[in-house]
Request: fold
Amino acid sequence: MSVSVSSSTRKTRLQVALENKRVIAYCLYVSLAAITYGFDGAVSGYLLSLPVFVQHFGYNYNGTFVVPAIHQSTWNGVVVAGGVLGAFVAGPIGNRLGRRYLFIIGSVISACGILAQELADEWRVMAAGKFINYIAMSMYAVGAPTYISEICPVELRGIALTFFNFFTLIGQFICSCVMQGTMKRTDALSFRIPIIVQYGVPLILFVGTWFIPETPYWHAEKGQNDAAKASLERLHGGKVDFEERFRDIQSEIEHNQKASTVKFIDCFKGSNLRRTIIAAGILSGQQLVGVAFVFGYTTYFFILSGIATAQAFTITAIMFALQVVANMCSWYSIDRFGRRFLLLVGTSIMFVSLYIIGGVGTNPLYTTGHFPKVVVSFMVIFSVFYQLSLGSVGWTVASEVSSSVNRASTQAIAVFWSTIFGFVISFTIPYLINPDEANLGPKVGFIYGSFTLIVLAFIWFCVPEMKGRSYEELDYMFRNGIPTRAFENFKVPAGEITEIGSAHLSNEKHRSSPDVAEVAV
Reply:
C-alpha cells in the first residue's frame, strides 16, 4: 500500500530548504573539504608559471629554465598514487568508523602532506608531500558526497551534491587570488606562501567535524537506533517526524540487505555492477575530457601559447570566477533540466571547443595575432560548460546512483577509477606540451576532444535521468533493469514502494499516476 499525497501536501523546493536549514548548513560544511581539492589541483600549474619556482626545481634549457617533464610527471603520478590509496582506505573507514572520520583522519593526513611541501627544497620531497596530501583529498572526495546523500531530502539532494564541485572551484579561485599576490615576489616565499595557505581547511575540518552529527543511515546500519534518531533530531531540529523518518531509513536498509550483504565485492554483483560502472564512468569522464590540463595547467599553457605571464595569471583568475558563477547556475538547472540533459549538452559543447582549440594549433603561427585570443576564448567556454554539466552533475550522479548500503564503497571505487584515469592524463600532460618534449601546443585539444567524444557516448548509452527519484525508486528501477533512456518517464508500480518511502517521493512524481509501469523508449 502506498501513501497518496495530495496537492495540498506538496512542498516547493524552497519550502523544503527552509525546513532543512541545518541540513544545508552541514552539507556546506563538509563540502569545505573540496577547497583543498581545488586549491592543490590549481596550484601545480601556477607554480610552474613562477620563475622562482622553475629556477628552484628546474634546469636551463636553451637559455630558459624548465622543470623536467619527468619531474612534473612524477609529481602528477604520486598524486594519483595517493588518491588511489585514499580511495581504498576511505570505504572501510567510512563503513567501520563512520562518515565523519573520513574528514577527521583526512585532515591530519592533509596537514602532514602540506608540511612536507612547505619544507621541500628538493623535487622528491615535494613529491612525497603531494602523495600524502592526496591520500586525504581522496578521502574527502569519498566522504563529502556520501555524507550529503545520506542526510539530504530527495528534493535537495541534487543541489546539495553540487556543493563539492562548487567549493572545488572556490579553492581554485582562492589559489588564483593568492598567486596574484605572490607572483611578483623574487624569493622562495612566492611559492611557499600558496602552500602554507592550504593549512586552513584541514584545521577547520579537524576542529569542526567533532561537532557535526554522524549520518542516521550509518547509525541505523550499525543497529544504533537511538543514535540514529538523535542524529535525525540534530539534523532537522524537530521539524520532521523522527519515528517515521527512522522507519523509512530502516525500510530502505532492510530492503537492500535482503539482496546483498555489506561487502566491497557486492558493488560488482547483480544490478549493483551497473550502478558502479555509472558512478566510476562519470567521475572518470571528468578526467578524460582533460580537466587536469584545463584547470591545472591553464596559466602555464596560456604562457606557452603566447600570452604574457601577468596577463595569463589575470585571465586564469577571471576564468575561475566565471566557473564559480556557472556552477551556481547548475544549482537551478540540475533539477530544472535534469542530469542527463545537462551532461549531454555540456559535453557536446566541450567536444566542439576542444576541437576548435586543436584546429588553431595546426597553424604554425598560433602564438601570434588573434590566435591566442581564440584559444583563451574556447578554453573559457569549455570551462564554463564543464561546470554547468560534467563538473557539477558528475558528483551528483555518482552519489545518487549508489544503493544505500554500498554507497561509501561505490563512491570509493568511483574515486579510485577517476584517480587512475587522472594519473594517465596528468602524467602525459608535460610530455605533450613542454617545449623540451612534444610541444604540441593547442593541438592537444584534438587528444582531449577525442576522449570527450567517448565520454559523450558513455553518457548517451549508460547514464539515466535520476532527477527527483527517491532511493527506493532507483533501487527498483536498477533491480529490474530499466533501460537508460526509459528512466525519465518510467512509473514505478504503486505496490513496489513502501508506504513510508512513498511519502518522500518528489513533487514531480506526485503529478503522475503511479498505478502502472510505463516505459518510454
